[in-house]
Every structure is written in C-alpha cells, then in structure tokens.
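Repro case for the chain-ordering regression, as requested:
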Amino acid sequence: MTETLGNSVQTLWQSQPVEVTKMSVEELRRRAGKFERKIRWRNTREYVASLVAAGLMGYFYVTANDVASKVTFALFIAAMLWIVIALHRMGSAKRTPLDTDTLTTQQFYRAELERQLAVVKNVLWWYLAPMIPGMIGCTVAYLLKHHHRWAWGGLVLMDGLFVAVFYGVWKLNTLAARCLERMINDLDAVTQQV
Amino acid sequence: MSTKELVSTIEIPATASRQDELYQEAAAAYGAALERLARAYEADADLRRDLLQDIHVELWRSFQTFDDRCSMRTWIYRVAHNVGASHVIRQRRTRTEALVGLEELENLPDPDGDQAADRSHALDRLLQLIQQLKPLDRHVILSYLEGLDAAAIGEITGLSAVNVATKIHRIKNLLARWFQQGGKSND
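-- result from build under test --
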C-alpha cells in the first residue's frame, strides 16, 4: 500500500504544472563571465596591492639618502615580498566543485572554509609580523634624523599611525574570521552525519 | 581589439560549441525537472527565479568539463542539487525555521488528517514537507520523487546503497503518514 501511495505521490510531483525557464547561451555566457571577472579581480587585487606597495617602497629606497632610511625601506620591501609569497603559497579561494556528489561537495566546501579561516586567523604571523622590522627601522631612522624638541610628537604620530593600521588590518580579519565561522556553523547545521 | 572582445575571447572555451550543445540538450530534457527542483529549494517566487538562473548558469559552466564519467542525468542532478544546497545554506541566516532530517521528521506529530485528505492541497503539503528537510535528505526525496532508482540516488548524493535504501524506506513511510488519511503506514 505504501508502494502504491509512493507511486501516486511521484505522479503528483512529476505532473505538477511548471513554466520552463529558457536562457540563451549569450545570457549564460554574460552571467558566467561576470562571476569569473569578479573572482579574477579578487585574486589579483591581493597581489597587486602588495606589489604596488613594494614598488613605492622601492622608489623611496632609491631616493633615500641615509643608511637608516635605506635599511627601513629594504625591510618593508622584504616584508611585501614575503606577503606576496605567503599569499601565493596559501593559494586563493578555491571554487567548490558542483559536479561531484553531495557529500564530496559538502566536504570540500567545509575544508575550504576551514582553510580560509586559518588564513585570516593567522594574519598576525604572515601579514603583520613581517612589517614589524620595517616599522622599528622607520622609528630608528626618524630618531636619527630628528633631534629637535618636538621630534617625539612626530614619532608618536607616526607610530600611532602604524598601530592604527595594524589594528585596522587585525580587526578586519577578525570580522572576516567571524563571518567564516558563521558560514561553517551554517553548513554544519544543515549537514548530516551518515 | 576592444575590451569587450578581449573578455569574450578569454571566456569562450575551445569546446564552446560542445558545451553549448550539451547545455541545450540538458535544458530541453530536464528543464521541467529543474523547475520542480528549484520549487523544492525556494518557496519565494523571486528568489526561486534567481536560483533557477544560477542553476542554469552553473550547469552551462559545468559542461566545459563534462567527460562522460557519469551519465548526463547524474551530472545534471548533482550540479542542480549542489546549487540548491548552497542556496539553502546561504538563506539559513535570514530564515528562522530549523531544517530537520528524515529521522527527526518521522518523530514529529502527524499532519492534520482533514488537511491530509484534501488532495487539492497535496502538492503544497508535499512541498511543505520537502522544504523542512536538510539538503542531503532533500536530494534523496527529490530524486525519489523524480523516479530515480537507488543506484542513481547514491551516485548523486555519495550515500551508500544501504543508506539510500534506509532513507527511501523512511520517505515512503513519511509520505504515507502525510498523505494517507488515518495516519500510519500499513507497510
């Protein structure tokens, strides 16, 4: 009896009136292209920002006329390159494959979220810490160059700016981590153990 | 070469015509099934339209790498269900109702008998049942309703044959409870 009822529910389901969506290949291509460009832009943005900053530091290095400043800028360039290498090694966000079975797709998606979470949680080590030697160099170079009474004010301002930028980067990554944790929780809430 | 031409050159794969053909073939054969599937993943008409378009775009994109390792039907359902599941996960934050598994649904009280007897509401009730389910169980019940056999359901979901059989058994009992006046299944 259950079998017969099952068949009639299947018939009910399959015979429901539907209006079939039709999308032209041009429209599909346009929408897919929009998404691809967004991903490509996101991936290149991280490298370009670091490389532009390294280029700027390179310019300052060439034009600096004292050893302390040159060392400082060299340290910043090294930090930027370290960040680019770290970004490259960690890899960009990977697209979840949709043509695999449900369980595999869910596992991949969760692993990818976990990986991204580890990246943003470790921002202190791979992004902020490499900048610290340059920041110290900057402070030393400033102190060597400025001996007037108000030099401390400038130093506090400069280091205050560094701290503010560090805090901003750390805070943004903390927010990103929270967002990723929420996504993992959302996924876990609808994922079933089999 | 203009920017538009450049973008277009980058994005059209070498196998574009095969990809387009496969998509058109899939859309023609499974268009109605995809509509039904979207209905099971999204109750709101506007959001459902967006979801359906996403399914079509992902399906078209997926055919770039379609290599006959599985049947076209399995491929289509995998892509469509995975897009639907992503949609459910994304929407979860804005919706208050908790999703449940088949096991939990079995333990919930039976639906109202009078309502269950009203065949004109049967489809709404079926959707109501499906939309409560967690994605994996939703995949199974939808595949069952589409008439797929246990092996095909296993291929789509990644579940073992035993797991699929158990879930189908539960689905049949649930459907009996929801659609048979007087409640419990005779199975």
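Ordering looks correct now. Chain A touches chain B through 46 residues (CB under 8 Å).
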